[in-house]
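Severity: low
Component: inverse-folding endpoint
Summary: output formatting inconsistent between runs
Steps to reproduce: submit the following structure tokens with default settings.
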């Protein structure tokens, strides 16, 4: 199981600035191990978000709650049923993120909703079980169901001196509403969330390095409360969910 706490800041940026921004970050960073062997240096992230029938997690975000959570199932690239999937509980308190993640086989994702036993595949079975039980407990108690599939390409950088420093470029965001819980690889009928901009995320443990602050200043970037989940829902339900304003 992975469990960590970190700061996370998001920025929505026009695609025309992506190459120049990458060059600035690459002075003190490098591509992470998952990007290095890929031709375009970006892998595909696929997440199915769970929520209540009344969209509790969505409205926690929309109402600006400082303490909120979300549950999702995530996989990477063109996964097969026996490849790894991850059950994630992501809690947020202001700009601080607390995340627990359990590794399972994708073939077992239907068991999340049908009550059959799940088998974590990580190395620490005892701790994995604790996190898995928490995920299943929340799913059952809140009667969670799949609400949207969010897919995008991610280029990820890590710090040369601090491997916990992470910067990601999330591009070609798209979504599908009301997916089946195993529909990670779906591309048919997906709707574009954002084509002209990408989401830049800066993640760090304690404090942001001064050189990153200089990049933010030089490009005139400002932090935005961007939720891929919320925006992915709103492109499908414009008349029932209030749109997020993206500047």
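Observed output (run 2 of 3):
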């Amino acid at each position: 199981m992975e469990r960590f706490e970190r700061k996370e800041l998001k920025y929505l940026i026009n695609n025309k600035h992506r190459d120049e921004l990458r060059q600035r970050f690459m002075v003190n960073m490098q591509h992470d191990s998952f990007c290095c062997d890929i031709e375009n240096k970006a892998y595909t992230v696929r997440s199915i978000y769970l929520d209540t029938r009344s969209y509790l997690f969505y409205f926690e975000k929309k109402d600006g709650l400082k303490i909120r959570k979300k549950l999702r199932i995530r996989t990477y690239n063109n996964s097969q049923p026996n490849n790894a999937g991850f059950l994630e509980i992501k809690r947020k308190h202001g700009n601080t993120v607390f995340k627990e993640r359990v590794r399972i086989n994708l073939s077992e994702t239907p068991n999340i909703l049908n009550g059959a036993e799940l088998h974590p595949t990580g190395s620490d079975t005892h701790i994995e079980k604790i996190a898995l039980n928490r995920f299943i407990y929340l799913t059952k108690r809140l009667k969670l169901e799949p609400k949207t599939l969010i897919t995008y390409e991610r280029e990820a950088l890590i710090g040369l001196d601090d491997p916990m420093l992470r910067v990601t470029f999330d591009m070609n965001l798209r979504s599908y509403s009301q997916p089946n819980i195993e529909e990670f690889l779906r591309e048919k009928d997906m709707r574009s969330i954002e084509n002209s901009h990408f989401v830049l995320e800066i993640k760090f443990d304690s404090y942001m390095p001064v050189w990153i602050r200089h990049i933010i200043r030089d490009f005139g970037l400002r932090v935005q409360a961007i939720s891929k989940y919320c925006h992915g829902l709103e492109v499908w339900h414009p008349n029932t969910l209030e749109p997020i304003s993206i500047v």
